[in-house]
Amino acid sequence: MIRLPARDISSVVLVLVVIAILALPVPPGASGGATAADAVCGVLVLWCGIRLVRERRRPLSRTAALVLGLPVVGFALAAAGTTAPESGLLGLVRYLQIFVLVPAAVLLSVRGRPDFRLVAWAFVGLALWQGAVGVHQYVTGTGASYAGEDIRAVGTFGASDVMGMATTVALGLVCAVGLALGPHTAGQRAAATLCAVALSLPLAVSFSRGAWIATAAACGLQVVLAGLRRAVTVFSAVAALSVLVVGGLGIGSTVLNERMNSITKVTETPDQSVTDRYTMWTAAVDMWRDRPLTGVGLKGFPEYRDTHASLALSSGSDIAGAGTLYRKQPLLSPHNMYLLVLGEQGLIGLLTLVGSWLALLTCAARGLVRVRREPSGPHGLDCALVACGVLVWVLVDFTYADIGGPSTALTAVALGLVAWWALADTTSSGRASAEERAVAAVPERAGTP
């Protein structure tokens, strides 16, 4: 029996609290404004600042400061150019929180691969809870309204944030797949595999087309990066399971097929939500054409929407079910992060923000290559797969979604995990931990973690 050294998790506790607080129910009818998760994010950032002052050390490496700080240029210019200074200031704070301050705080809080895995498992745990609530809503008909029935799984986020549970479950599933494909321990692989399979159902009944596409892309990439031979096995198993569940048993086949087919139906009799989305995408592009460099300003999309959108845009989306009375929810964003940034921040904002993400992706991929060459074995491969998978999921999902709602705090923490793997000093916090060296020192016996 191996006695592993006790670990101090005090530095990462606040990160876990941010994730845990998203398990609490969102009050019915609540929309917009700061949430409890945002408040804990603020405490996390403040605590990291106090700790750095007390320890009197440089907080970030030059590379990390450049990559995480690059989007600030676009944010500041867009905030200065808005016609509503108050809204511009609120938008600046929000963007700094999500894409700069919270990721930097998570990077500073995670001190090694064990902490990274702990946070990744917290993502999985939150996803299992939200997924269980969502499946119960689907089975009992107590979810959000979809196609005239209250069957859409939304977890504790409510009908006003239908993307909340989908985001949470998808990120948890991506983390579970990464943990399952890494060679850390047999116990971790088995538990993570079971979790990934269990999370597939709530993701399906969330009816979120963007989350489906992003999850398929991220998990497919993770499987390929784990090894081509394993990829063939995994893809074959997934295909067989899909045929059994959807084709053979017919579970949700009609509803899921209709939802998937609606993605490409933009003529004849299209889904109104698809029509609204493409109409708002066109409006965002028109805003950019008016002000190509700096956009219309942060939080400016709602103000300029009606002057750029066609008559095909509806008055809003229908909200009902999951404890919420029927109402119309106004369409205040294009549901595409890239076009939202392009319209509100212009080319400067888009290039600085996307440039930061691409730099993170490049550094994360380099970390994956580096960990494969470790002399003691690739005991950080699971962390690499989680980081690469999470970032790819966010980048693909942003094609169909943007920031907003309580789950945005989870996206900020996810970007912080990626930032740690991509930017942490490999000679200190990125080095294999004592726990990993202890595990690597003992040959793994059949069936023993």
Structure description:
- By secondary structure, this protein is mainly alpha-helical.
- The chain has one domain (70-425).
- It has 17 helices and four strands.
- Strands 1-2 form a two-stranded antiparallel sheet. A two-stranded antiparallel ribbon has the order 3-4.
- Helix 3 packs antiparallel against helix 14 (337-372) and helix 7 packs antiparallel against helix 8 (186-204).
- It is globular and about 55 Å long.
- The model is unreliable at 1-6, 265-269, 426-435 and 437-449 (pLDDT under 50).
Topology, number of strands: 4
CA(first)-CA(last) distance? 10 Å
Number of domains: 1
Outline, from the CA principal axes?
A: globular
Helix-and-strand structural type: mainly alpha
Q: What order do the helices and strands follow?
A: HHHHHHEEHHHHHHHEEHHHH
Tell me about the largest β-sheet: 2 strands, antiparallel
Number of helical segments with 4 or more residues? 17
Poorly predicted parts: 1-6, 265-269, 426-435, 437-449
Average pLDDT works out at 83
Strand content: under 5%
Sheet with the most strands: spatial strand order = 1-2
Task: Tell me the radius of gyration.
Answer: 22 Å
**Percentage of helical residues?**
55-70%
